[in-house]
Design brief:
With 49 residues, the protein is of the alpha+beta class. The protein is built from one helix and two strands, in the order E-E-H.
Protein backbone atom coordinates (compact mmCIF):
# COMPACT_ATOMS: atom_id res chain seq x y z
CA UNK A 1 0.00 0.00 0.00
CA UNK A 2 1.41 3.36 -0.96
CA UNK A 3 0.85 6.65 0.80
CA UNK A 4 -1.54 8.84 -1.06
CA UNK A 5 -2.68 12.41 -0.65
CA UNK A 6 -5.83 11.44 1.18
CA UNK A 7 -8.90 13.58 1.68
CA UNK A 8 -9.59 16.54 3.95
CA UNK A 9 -6.16 18.10 3.33
CA UNK A 10 -4.46 14.73 3.77
CA UNK A 11 -5.93 14.18 7.24
CA UNK A 12 -7.92 11.03 6.55
CA UNK A 13 -5.88 8.72 8.75
CA UNK A 14 -2.90 8.42 11.05
CA UNK A 15 0.32 6.41 11.09
CA UNK A 16 2.20 5.95 14.37
CA UNK A 17 5.09 3.51 14.57
CA UNK A 18 3.62 0.24 13.29
CA UNK A 19 -0.05 1.29 13.44
CA UNK A 20 -2.23 2.45 10.56
CA UNK A 21 -5.56 3.99 11.57
CA UNK A 22 -7.88 5.20 8.83
CA UNK A 23 -11.47 5.23 7.74
CA UNK A 24 -10.40 4.02 4.30
CA UNK A 25 -11.36 0.40 3.71
CA UNK A 26 -8.66 -1.95 2.46
CA UNK A 27 -9.64 -5.13 0.62
CA UNK A 28 -6.86 -7.68 1.03
CA UNK A 29 -7.41 -9.23 -2.41
CA UNK A 30 -6.91 -5.82 -4.00
CA UNK A 31 -3.69 -5.11 -2.10
CA UNK A 32 -1.79 -8.38 -1.59
CA UNK A 33 1.39 -6.55 -0.56
CA UNK A 34 -0.50 -4.92 2.32
CA UNK A 35 -1.92 -8.27 3.40
CA UNK A 36 1.53 -9.90 3.37
CA UNK A 37 2.95 -7.05 5.45
CA UNK A 38 0.07 -7.30 7.91
CA UNK A 39 0.68 -11.02 8.45
CA UNK A 40 4.45 -10.50 8.69
CA UNK A 41 3.97 -7.80 11.34
CA UNK A 42 1.76 -10.17 13.36
CA UNK A 43 4.36 -12.93 13.20
CA UNK A 44 7.13 -10.52 14.24
CA UNK A 45 5.03 -9.35 17.19
CA UNK A 46 4.33 -12.94 18.25
CA UNK A 47 8.03 -13.83 18.07
CA UNK A 48 8.97 -10.89 20.34
CA UNK A 49 6.87 -12.27 23.22
Amino acid sequence: MKRGKGILNGMDGAVYKNVLAAYTHVHVLGTPIWAEGFIRAGIEYKNKK
